[in-house]
């Protein structure tokens, strides 16, 4: 069975390696070759790509998507979608989720990969229903992590529920890169035996063993693997596309990609990579193997975040203490997988616990909200004494958090009627209000007119 490959360099690749700063022009530059290479899909859009467009690059993320679509005539385009969080960090109302899915598909997305940080499938439902309604390919991703509750049986049961929800395919999303080779073999085998869904594997090379894990997953029957073109592969990113094309060539798994096209795209992408190495956004550390993630089960992105928080506080000597604090907090919070937004919450709490010298003396608002059930159900039960010690007798909800949210779209449209020119603009504001408003004000500001004083021609002697 030929393995299909999804190219991730244009989303996760630069997100993992240099803070998602690749510009639209740099992306468009490699697309003609990538579109002809024979990929199953190109992952091109997601939370961080959308956010950085507006916040740092002064680019319209919707325009980026339309430009990519215009070049990619042969290959499907894929995006990453955080369930009820869409591309943001809080829960949005169902009408915003529906509209965002509709507009993403209209502007060129084929495959929507939906996940929830807690694997609470109630948080996936709106996005899944909308993707099916607007005729997109709906892939649901399992947030993979290790804990006493995250057993293979747990994931198999989850996969059956996902299949029943109407998903078209399933992804094992190992955002931290902690899936071990033998565990991958067992997990993929069991998922294949218990569902009819095509299975995709997404992971990161951070710990140094991901090519082995991918190979074991392939032997167990995985259908699709996520890889990044060589210049943006390895380290905290995905395994290299070309490496798997060569490794599987001539076998029954041969992905049949056009290596000439990949080489040409890689030459262009190397120039881009060198730019980010030179300007310091790509830290060579991100390209080296880091076994700490296997020891502490902390995703690479979270490690670099912790380091920069500690550097800011001039407390780098506490780094190991903070790393050791992370698993304790995870256990107390019911073993949430460390993916956005939970990775930020657990990481910040760990820094606060260690630096203040007193655990949970300071607690971020988001951690309190999590303990009140506002992000969904924790994977394992949370000890009630612990919960009460943080939030006292405040109300804890057990229903789907978005059930409490009134429709928002029309209100936002009305509030910003003088600024927005499309539903896409409204959605940008719905997700990143202050940042998007600033971007749109700048984008639509009238071209400043120079003060012009009109006067009559000075008529004098004719010039001969
Ligand atoms: Co990833």
Give structural attributes:
464 residues; TIM Barrel; Cyclin A, domain 1; 2 domains; binds cobalt (II) ion
Lay out the secondary structure.
Layout: E1 4-7, H1 9-18, H2 24-36, E2 41-45, H3 47-57, H4 61-71, E3 76-81, H5 94-106, E4 111-115, H6 125-133, E5 137-143, H7 152-165, E6 169-173, H8 181-194, E7 199-202, H9 210-219, E8 224-227, H10 241-248, H11 259-278, H12 292-296, H13 300-312, H14 319-332, H15 342-356, H16 365-371, H17 384-391, H18 409-415, H19 423-431, H20 433-444
Parallel strand pairs: 1-2, 1-8, 2-3, 3-4, 4-5, 5-6, 6-7, 7-8
Structure notes:
This protein folds into 2 domains: 4-278, Alpha-Beta Barrel (TIM Barrel), CATH 3.20.20; 285-402, Conserved carboxylase domain (Cyclin A, domain 1), CATH 1.10.472.90. The protein contains 20 helices and 8 strands. It has helices at residues 9-18, 24-36, 47-57, 61-71, 94-106, 125-133, 152-165, 181-194, 210-219, 241-248, 259-278, 292-296, 300-312, 319-332, 342-356, 365-371, 384-391, 409-415, 423-431, 433-444; strands at residues 4-7, 41-45, 76-81, 111-115, 137-143, 169-173, 199-202, 224-227. Strands 1-2-3-4-5-6-7-8 form an 8-stranded parallel β-barrel, surrounded by 7 helices. The protein is globular and about 95 Å long. The protein starts with a strand and ends in a 20-residue tail after the last helix. The mean pLDDT is 95. Bound molecules: cobalt (II) ion. Cobalt (II) ion is lined by residues 12, 175, 202, 204.
């Amino acid at each position: 069975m030929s393995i299909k490959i999804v190219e991730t360099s244009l989303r996760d690749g630069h997100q993992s390696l240099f803070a998602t700063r690749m510009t639209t022009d740099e992306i468009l530059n490699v697309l003609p070759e990538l579109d002809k290479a024979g990929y199953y899909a190109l992952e091109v859009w997601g939370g961080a790509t959308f956010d950085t467009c507006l916040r740092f690059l002064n680019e319209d993320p919707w325009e980026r998507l339309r430009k990519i679509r215009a070049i990619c005539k042969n290959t499907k385009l894929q995006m990453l979608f955080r369930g009820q969080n869409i591309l943001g960090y809080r829960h949005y109302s169902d009408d915003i989720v529906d509209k965002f899915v509709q507009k993403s598909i209209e502007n060129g997305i084929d495959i929507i990969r939906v996940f929830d940080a807690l694997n609470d499938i109630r948080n996936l439902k709106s996005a899944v229903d909308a993707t099916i309604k607007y005729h997109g390919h709906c892939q649901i991703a399992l947030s993979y992590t290790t804990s006493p509750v995250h057993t293979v049986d747990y994931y198999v049961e989850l996969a059956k529920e996902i299949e029943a929800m109407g998903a078209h395919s399933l992804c094992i999303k190992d955002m931290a890169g902690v899936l071990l080779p033998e565990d991958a073999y067992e997990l993929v085998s069991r998922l294949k035996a218990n569902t009819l869904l095509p299975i995709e594997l997404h992971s990161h090379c951070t710990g140094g063993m991901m090519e082995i894990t991918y190979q074991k997953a392939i032997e167990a029957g995985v259908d699709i693997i996520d890889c990044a073109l060589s210049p943006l592969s390895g380290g905290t990113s995905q395994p290299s596309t070309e490496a798997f094309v060569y490794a599987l060539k001539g076998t029954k798994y041969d992905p049949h990609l056009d290596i000439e096209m990949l080489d040409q795209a890689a030459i262009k992408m190397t120039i881009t990579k060198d730019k980010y190495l030179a300007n310091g956004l790509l830290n060579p550390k991100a390209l080296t193997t880091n076994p700490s993630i296997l020891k502490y089960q902390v995703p690479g992105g979270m490690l670099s975040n912790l380091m920069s928080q500690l550097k800011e506080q001039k407390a780098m000597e506490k780094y190991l203490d903070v790393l050791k604090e992370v698993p304790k907090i995870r256990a107390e919070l019911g073993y949430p997988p460390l993916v956005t937004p939970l990775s930020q919450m657990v990481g910040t709490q760990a820094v606060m616990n260690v630096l203040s010298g007193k655990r949970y003396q300071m607690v971020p608002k988001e951690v309190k909200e999590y303990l009140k059930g506002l992000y969904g159900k924790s994977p394992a039960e949370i000890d009630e004494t612990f919960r009460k010690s943080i939030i006292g007798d405040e109300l804890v909800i057990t229903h789907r958090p978005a059930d409490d949210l009134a429709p928002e779209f029309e209100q936002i449209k009305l509030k910003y009627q003088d600024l927005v020119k499309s539903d896409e603009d409204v959605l940008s504001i719905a997700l990143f209000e202050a940042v998007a408003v600033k971007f749109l004000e700048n984008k639509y500001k009238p071209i400043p007119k120079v003060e012009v004083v009109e006067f009559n021609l000075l008529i004098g002697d004719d010039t001969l």
